[in-house]
Specification:
Elements: H1 12-34, E1 62-65, E2 72-75, E3 87-89, E4 98-100, H2 104-107, E5 131-133, E6 152-154, E7 160-170, E8 175-183, E9 188-192, E10 197-199, E11 210-212, H3 235-253
Parallel strand pairs: 6-11
Antiparallel strand pairs: 1-2, 3-4, 5-7, 6-7, 7-8, 8-9, 10-11
Length: about 260
Amino acid sequence: MVGVSIVGNIDFASVAIWGFWIFFAVLIFYLQTENMREGYPLEDDEGKPAANQGPFPLPKAKTWMLPHGRGERTVPDMQPEGRDLALAKSDMAQGAPFVPTGDPMADGVGPASWAPRRDVPELDGKGHPKVVPMKGDAHFKVSAGYDPRGLKVVSGDKQVVGEVSDMWIDEPEQLVRYLEYTLEDGSTRLVPIQLAKVTRANFMGGRNPYVQIRSLKAAHFSGVPKIASGDQITMLEEEKVCAYYGGGTLYSVGDQAG
C-alpha cells in the first residue's frame, strides 16, 4: 500500500551498533569468568579469602576428561592450596613483605618457590613422557658443539662438585632440557640446561672445558631435590628442581657470583 512502511521509524544502523555493543559486553563477561576457573577465589597474603573478589562472579564448575586415562579435572574446585609456608610477616601493615623463617631453598619460598603441579610426567601427544634421558633413546645424539657428558661440574664458588653423566631431552621439541650429573657420594641430580654453562675459562690452571653452575655454592648441591625415577621426571619434580636453582641465585650465591 502506498505510504505505509513495514518497519516504521526503526533505525537499522542504530539497531546494528547497539546489537554489537551488547554482544561485545556479553563476550567480555564470558571471557573474564572463564579466565577465573583457576586461581580463584582470591586469597590474601596469609592464605585467607580476600575481602575484595572483584566485580565478576565465579563461573559454574565444569569438569574435563583428561587425555591418556589421567582421570578428570573440575574447575574451579574451590579448594585452597593448603601449603604451610615457612614465612612470617615483617610488619603488621597490610602488604608488608614476608621473610623466610627456615631454609628458604628447601622450604620453596621467595625466588625458590614452586607451584604444586601434578606428580606425574608431562606427556606428548602419543601419551609418552616428554622428557627422558638420552641414554635411553638411541634416536638422539650430539651433532654440534661440546658433548658435556664426562665434563666436571663446577659450583658458583669455584669448587668441583661432580661430573656430567647424561643429558635429558625433550623428545617432541628436540632439545636438551636438563643435564644429569653425579656427585661425589654417587647420587645423581638434574640441572636445567639454561642454568648450566659449558666453558673453557681458565680454571685450576687449565683450559679444559667444564660445566659451570653459578647459582649454587658447593655446599648446596646435596640439597638439590632428587627425582624418584631414573627414566622420567614428573611435573612436580621439575618445579622443585628448577625452583631450587632459581632460589640459589639469591639465597646461596648472592652477589658473590662471578
